[in-house]
Design a protein that fits this description.
By secondary structure, the chain is of the alpha/beta class. The protein has helices spanning about 15-25, 65-70, 90-105, 120-125, 130-150, 185-195, 210-220, 240-250, 265-280, and strands spanning about 1-5, 30-35, 80-85, 110-115, 150-155, 160-165, 180, 195-200, 230-235, 255. An 8-stranded parallel beta barrel has the order 1-2-3-4-7-8-9-10, surrounded by 4 helices. It has a two-stranded antiparallel ribbon with strand order 5-6. The radius of gyration is 18 Å and the shape is globular. The N and C termini lie close together (about 10 Å). The relative contact order is 0.16.
Length: about 280
């Protein structure tokens, strides 16, 4: 089983390069970072995690900058967005960033994607909340075209461009693995349609194990085998027995959560999490 960590990379947290080296030394497979371009002052949208929005949401670095720092400081650690808010990003620019970091990391990038929950944040980027999922699908399809074709073009309702040249192409073929966030049934539906993996947040909606029949049904609708979809549990419990149960059920990656704290706080936490890795993988 693979193990990773996720964090909101803030200016006050352990530096991404330093954290990346610490993860690699302890046998972690991957390092994932969250994304929020800003938080609107209105706070109209309720946060799915509770009543009060944590301060880290206001202070998050750009994910591609943070991940590049971690990638250049390590040799084998995979780096991923958890998740990239595709509905707030230009697809041509984002396709370029994804291909670029895949080169900088020598093919170690994992592209976690999602739509998010903050309607005001999206609106400031010109995205309508009610149509964000169709926009996300079109942007994902457009990026796949950019990575695969030269020249590439895409014509949809929300994304529309005539043939363009865009290089570099990603190191990984045909592109870095796309891990779709979101609870069931929408998360599995989108993962089956354009993803290589499904990565729900632990404790949001049903359990990943209970929702596997939904994923299997959605894969069948799209002419795909459920075995094509890699299963990762985001914000997974730091528990070896639970990890083993999930591994037996087909989950291949546990991603532990970390607070945006300094090294003095995080290193002992990593040591505890590394004990779980050792207990599961030997």
């Amino acid at each position: 089983m693979d193990f990773g960590v996720c964090i909101f990379p803030t200016a006050d947290a352990m530096h991404p390069a330093e954290l990346g080296r610490a993860l690699e030394e302890r046998g972690f497979e991957s390092y994932w970072v969250a994304e929020h371009t800003h938080i609107p002052a209105s706070r109209r949208s309720p946060w799915p995690g509770g009543a009060d929005l944590p301060q880290m949401y206001y202070e998050t670095m750009d994910p591609f900058v943070a991940l590049t720092a971690a990638a250049t400081a390590t040799e084998n650690l995979k780096v991923g967005t958890g998740i990239c808010l595709v509905v707030e990003r230009d697809p041509i620019t984002t396709a370029k960033e994804v291909a670029s970091i895949d080169h900088v990391s020598n093919g170690r990038f994992l592209f976690g994607v999602g739509g998010g929950w903050n309607a005001e944040e999206m609106e400031n980027h010109g995205t309508a909340f009610d149509t964000r999922w169709k926009l996300m699908r079109e942007r994902m399809e457009a990026m796949k075209a950019i990575w695969a074709d030269d020249p590439a073009e895409y014509h949809g309702e929300f994304v529309d461009f005539d043939p363009i040249f865009s290089k570099p192409k990603p190191v990984q073929s045909p592109h870095p693995p796309i891990h779709v966030g979101g609870a069931s049934p929408w998360g599995p539906r989108r993962a089956a349609r354009y993803g290589d993996g499904w990565m729900p947040i632990n404790g949001r909606g049903g359990t990943i194990m209970d929702d596997l029949p939904v994923l299997a049904e959605e894969c069948e609708k799209n002419g795909r085998d459920i075995a094509e979809i890699e299963l990762s549990l985001y914000m997974a419990p730091v528990n070896a027995d639970v990890a083993k149960e999930h591994e037996e059920g087909g989950v291949s990656r546990f991603i532990f959560g970390l607070p945006p704290a300094d090294a003095e706080t995080l290193l002992p936490m990593l040591d505890k999490q590394a004990e779980v890795i050792a207990a599961v993988n030997g």
